[in-house]
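Support request, please re-run this one:
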Amino acid sequence: MKLRNLFSILLAFFFLLFFSDWMIKFLTISYLIINILSYVYSKILFENIEIYHKKNIIRSYKNHNIEIELTLKNKSFLQANYLFIKDNTGLLSLKESGKFLIRLNKFGKINLSYFVNAYKRGLFIIGPIKINGSDPLGFYPWEKTINSFSQIIIYPDIYKFFINIREGIPVGIIKSSNKIYEDTTLFKTVREYINGDDLKRINWKISAKMNKLHTMEYEYSLNSTVMILLNLNLNDFPLRYRFNHSENAIEIASSLVFYFTNQKQNIGLISNGKINNKYVYFPIKNGHNHAVMILESLAMINTSEAFENLIGMIAGTKIQLPGRTRIILITPKISMEELFCFYQFKKDNLLFDVFLLSEEKTNLNHDLKKRLGIDLYYYKIDERKIIYEKTSV
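Re-run finished. Output below.
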């Protein structure tokens, strides 16, 4: 109860006690009754108005319109003549106003919505919600803060991507032209027998019908288990356009996760970037939920000042990678020492690709590169695509 309301009630009692005129007493008693009823009315509304966000978590991308939905309820038997509602949108930009002026009937319920937009990736919090209301006469206005929050996860941009996978594990989903990856579970066609064909491949039913020997052919397919290494050491990025380069690194990692998930491949991620002051590690797994967890981490990851390079961190851990795993390193630059660390991994029958986010000239000669079995690429983002080409060495 505000001071002015208390003062008006004390003044009404003063008139009631010290003035004997019946008209003054009648008006004073009427005012006190109206005042008390207004207070009760306001108190009932305050206790029975509820509002909440319909979705606790919303996932979206940069520059997309995001609809925020609210549900407003009046659980009382009284009508709310006006309710002013304001949702706290934090760092998100408003496409439409997050403010509403609502009249709500007794036991009424209404759905409200507005749109926001995010111009960068990250985790954003919407809420709390403030409601202002009053009794019909406006004697007792009130304000209520509802601790309802909605998390908005903005993923990094996903770009169109294609990588020619030539090696991997036999029998999989990715089509190959290499005969060593023949999959006898994927029938392709039947052709006439050629001298030297394996007798086990002869289709005797078709051969009997055609009066000639016919041999079955199968599709060639493979799987490629992928571990993505994302270097977000701030000191490795050039000062000029440092933010853009680090964001491009994260976007390329996200595009790779999206691409290999669509290819139904097992993927993992290791990064020296940090979330809540911790390095990021996801073991190699498959499935949509696993990919979503990686993308959410890439939405929230930050650069760090790591004193140890990423490849050195991997070499010093006990992480076991399956044979023929494809390691993809995303980094602004690479040193000779890091390349030789890759060579140590090669002894474990692993495959390698290196994504250089800026065109770096290396001292690595062609013969040495060939012996290490590592392809170096220069990658850039252009017109919603990842353009890549081999670096000159």
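The domain at 49-155 is CATH 2.60.40.10 (Immunoglobulin-like). The helical segments are 3-18, 22-48, 204-210, 242-262, 288-300, 310-315, 336-346, 366-372.
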